[in-house]
């Protein structure tokens, strides 16, 4: 049993690969010299913006030792992971089931999938191989398999705050006792999608970003990865590890204001900083240095300065943005800057804000201009992203007595649930130019409830976001409070907006882009739009982990209730059908007479049981992890039996009926569980009703609620993912 | 030689192009007044719609805006936009 008070997260290893170098030693050398890593783009042809500066990793990833499989983002993440593990000197085999990986990524495998689209559009050739690693969760599989991690693992795709949110979520998993060790960070490669996307928003300064400068004219894109090894303090002490820093506070918030623009006063950013300070039990005056998000766009830097003044008043600590060293590497940036903060603490040095020359009167803050020796005890790292998504981390020196506030897992009540499910099984002809024939699918058709959306929501929001909005409204989640967290899982993200945007970019050589499609293509667009719709200002997240994306969302949402930072949490999942899902899935043999692709959205409104009088049901346990191959049914049944009382289960509701690979695995586990309780457990399935899609277990969850309403005492929702994820939720009366 | 007459931008045509590019399916050209503000109130357009209009200007009028600050005064109303297009075309 864990020693009381010893679950505090500490950092024992860091790994980093980015434009300025490979490894922290090399990177800190360039920081000390004040050398920018920005150069003209060489990774791919950019007909229109080829001369623009970017923070590109120019070394060959294979030469650096990256595995041959995986997308460019996956391989960057892997390289950072290996460095982090080596630097922490941990033998992960000792912690296999108690160690997981949590990765922030937003681009995922887009760069590689673009090769598929380019071949299709420019040459009319159907080459599906590069899409194999499209999913953001693909990096989790590769890293966890190679390094032997079988604990709770997921990707979070919340645009530019992902890397920081991943580290925060890893810390919560350790504090809640779900894991002892977490490999956490962020990774994103450059891609035509984000390159064309940020240019279409007129947010890129072709000469390189100048954060906080009066003449700043936009951001610079970058790529890279950073990972940290975080472990419970008791584990680190027991194995005699060198503690690099303490993760003493973390906080997340949502502006609930706009899809791309920050709140002008930085209200959400300030709330995230205050939340992190509360978690650390620190006064603002204790912070010695802030690593700013500081992208160099006109709006971000003003909003962030306003937020800093809100939090720190007249005494804003020394601040710098390190974006001109790295470029803005999107989901990786929060993790890269966390690594920079840890190194700053270790060396007692504040990195300079290169690119700055003149104070902007609208900002009124002069950042750190030279590398500066300083006594640092507590440092803060800010990350803000699309959808007004904010995450803030506080790192402290190892000897600091500060300890983060603990969380303790407990049950949540389901106060309401909204579902958008398929209306009927329909034949869908796959659009040319993919002549793959006809696929039977569970398609939602015209969305029931869409008429309740505003004209601007119908005009501007893609179908998947609309599905999520309608489901969230259906969960009766509208409350008097803004203290609402949202975790909306998705396996594939908004495929349609992403595909249309990139098809247009490739076919027109970056002319006539579609700026309104770009923000709609991010995985966290549904969660961000629900936040705007409901004025929900707590954590806002899009966990993505294949078939267990919903379970990951439930865990993340419940952890926010446990932290006391919100009064209510919406947990859900959404995925949409798209011509590429139909045709690539058909090419891979996923779709058969028995297995039909589907789509849909679900959102559950969760509160602590004491805060509701008539709950639909209770969630008394939620856990995620990874199974081993060869699949061992006894080990998996142990995993369930050690977490819940098997006597509480009336029905096991499984994700079987979808995959010929997974179905026998489900059956073997349920048979083993039945032997343990001495009776045949009732086994029900749901995919025959909703089809096969990553968010389907959310639909299963709505069935579980229905079974409990009909009189069942306890329903175990049990889900296995092709990429080795597993999830369980116990739903009780 | 006076090209100004040929260069005259019809505000009606411009309204149709705005409606098309922003997918304002429930709005007719007659509902948009020449001097009414396009952003904030009225049509309820936002900064992303402004970027869509920047793309529209390039596609239909060959005008490239690289800095949204430069476009901001022009995007105030249909009339300011028409005047901006005319000025740019005359300057060519």
SSE blueprint:
The complex is a heterodimer of chains A (733) and B (92).
Chain A lengths: L8 E10 L2 E2 L1 H10 L5 E2 L12 E2 L17 H17 L10 E6 L5 H14 L14 H10 L6 E3 L5 H14 L5 E8 L3 H9 L23 E9 H6 L6 E10 L12 H14 L8 E3 L6 H15 L6 E2 L2 H4 L6 H15 L1 E2 L21 E2 L4 E8 L3 E8 L15 E9 L3 E6 L8 E6 L11 H6 L2 H12 L9 E6 L5 H13 L9 H4 L4 H10 L5 E2 L1 E2 L4 H15 L4 E8 L3 H9 L12 E8 L9 E10 L6 H9 L9 E4 L8 H15 L4 E4 L1 H4 L5 H14 L4 E7 L4 E8 L1
Parallel strand pairs in A: 5-6, 5-7, 10-11, 10-14, 19-20, 19-22, 25-26, 25-27
Antiparallel strand pairs in A: 1-2, 1-8, 1-9, 3-4, 6-21, 7-8, 9-15, 12-13, 14-15, 16-23, 16-24, 17-18, 22-23, 24-28, 27-28
Helix pairs in contact in A: 2-4, 3-14, 5-11, 6-14, 8-9, 13-16, 19-20
Chain B lengths: L3 H4 L3 H11 L25 H15 L6 H4 L6 H14 L1
Please characterize this protein's 3D structure.
The complex is a heterodimer of chains A (733) and B (92). Chain A is α/β, with parallel strands linked by helices. Helices cover 33% and strands 21% of the residues of chain A. In chain A, the strands form five sheets. In chain A, strands 1, 2, 5, 6, 7, 8, 9, 10, 11, 14, 15 and 21 form a twelve-stranded mixed β-sheet that branches. A ten-stranded mixed β-sheet of chain A has the order 20-19-22-23-16-24-28-27-25-26, with helices on both faces. Chain A has a two-stranded antiparallel ribbon with strand order 3-4. The two termini of chain A are 29 Å apart. With 92 residues, chain B is mostly helical. In chain B, 52% of the residues lie in helices and 0% in strands. Chain B has helices at 4-7, 11-21, 47-61, 68-71, 78-91.
